[in-house]
Amino acid sequence: MKKGDIVVIRAHGITKEIQRKLEEKDLELYDATCVFVSQIKWKILWAMEQGYEILFLGDKNHPEVKGITSYAENIQIFSDLEELKAAEIRKDRRYFLSTQTTLHQKKFLEIKRYLEEFHPNVYIFNKICGATQERQRATEILAKEVDIVFVLGGKKSSNTKKLYEISKSINPNTYFLEREEDLEEACLQGKHKIGLTAGASTPEEIIRNIENKIRGILDA
């Protein structure tokens, strides 16, 4: 890249080191980082200034988590309650807990209850995306009411994978579709109530194409 090139920062954000390198190159930067992701980053910086040690709940390999946690020092990252229980949390220190924005709400509440009971010295900052929570709740309801559920979106998408996990835990007839070619006609046999849900980043065209294919099969 050369001076003046246009760079758009994706919704997941970027690491502190990448940010520094981009700024050094004198590029034209457009920051499209999700507002929730940015709020978590700034809140963590505030917490460190106040003397808190940082705990973070999320997938350490996810780009959002890599970006946020790159701004923290002496941070402990864990993905579930079992990992948290194994973390070093001392009674004589103050801790600040934040989370990945697409975290499963039930997982967060489970950990919140544990910390409130055993580690009241942990300040809990919940910034799970509101839209993500609504999709998760809607998927739970949907999975109970239909014969089969199709979860549409990329298999590398964190929020889409969580929708699949939620639905699958309730309705075993749950299928992950990235494109209309993934839909197998046989799985619709004997099914009358069909449910569709999709990740936040799933293109409208893919949703529409899969819906039309399902309607075509059922109407045949």
From TrEMBL:
Signal peptide: none annotated. One of its GO terms (molecular function) is 4 iron, 4 sulfur cluster binding. Gene3D superfamilies: 3.40.50.11270, 4-hydroxy-3-methylbut-2-enyl diphosphate reductase, catalytic domain. InterPro entries: LytB/IspH. It comes from the Bacteria. GO terms for biological process: dimethylallyl diphosphate biosynthetic process; isopentenyl diphosphate biosynthetic process, methylerythritol 4-phosphate pathway. Pfam families: LYTB. Keywords: 4Fe-4S, Iron, Iron-sulfur, Metal-binding. Its cofactor is [4Fe-4S] cluster. Transmembrane segments: none annotated. NCBIfam families: ispH_lytB. This is Hydroxymethylbutenyl pyrophosphate reductase.
